[in-house]
Every structure is written in structure tokens, then in C-alpha cells.
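Let us work through a complete example step by step.
Step 1: write down the sequence.
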Amino acid sequence: MTTDEPIVDSATGWVAKHIRTYVESGGTKGHLYQGLPTLLLTVRGRRSGVLRRTALIYGRAGDDLVVVASNGGSDGHPAWYLNLCDTPDVDLQVGTERFAARARTATPQEKPALWQAMVTIFPRYEQYQATAGREIPVVVLERIIR
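Step 2: predict the structure and record it as C-alpha cells.
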């Protein structure tokens, strides 16, 4: 998806500031946020067609990256998750590295181990699941080799 189109960053104040720091430093700052590993995910809006970017905590599963669509334990899925369900080709920045990836929801067989790995990184996911009123998806991001 790599393009020269404008990208709209998250409207959430602290997330937007984190993204700005990440982008302006070329990824030398912002990769660790409050001690947690974060990546920048850029996905195309399912209704607007606009490229949208957010920062997410991530883990690793072999060569793949893993994120959690927690939305802070809200009842609904985050917009970025709904967007990548429609358009799974995304752009990622992990530290100073930028690359294309394909997103997919973890299978029921994969999810328990991936969920546990992500809870180890960010224990609050367990609280989010308890209050969400929905099953929180785990997303696998597979690098696209070009």
C-alpha cells in the first residue's frame, strides 16, 4: 500500500502526539512507549478511503507481529480493526523499519497462545476482555515480501 497519499493520524490527543514523535524521529523515538513496544499501523478507511494511522502495542510470533484490537475494553471494535477487515493490506513502521504487511484475525487455534503472549506484554488486556462485552480479536501482521 505504500503511497504518497496524505495520512490522517489518530484524533486521540496522546496517540497523535506519540505518532508525531515516532514519525518525526524516523522511529528512533517512540518505539518504546512507557516501556511497551509499539508500532505504527496505517490502514485504508473502509468508508472514507483515507489512509489512517495509529500506534499499537505489539508482540512477535516467529516472523509475524501481533496486535490486540482491545479498544480499551470498549463494547465495539476499534475502527482500525474494522478497516483492516475490509482492506487487510497495511503499512507498518516498527522502530526505524517501514514495510508492507497483510493483516488477519488469529484463528481460534492460534488465539490462546497469542493472547497469552500479549497479556504477558500488557496485562491490562485481561481487564479489557472482562469489561468488553465482546471477544477481543488478536491480529497477526504478516510481512509482504516484495
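Step 3: interpret the result. Residues 101 and 129 are 26 Å apart (CA to CA).
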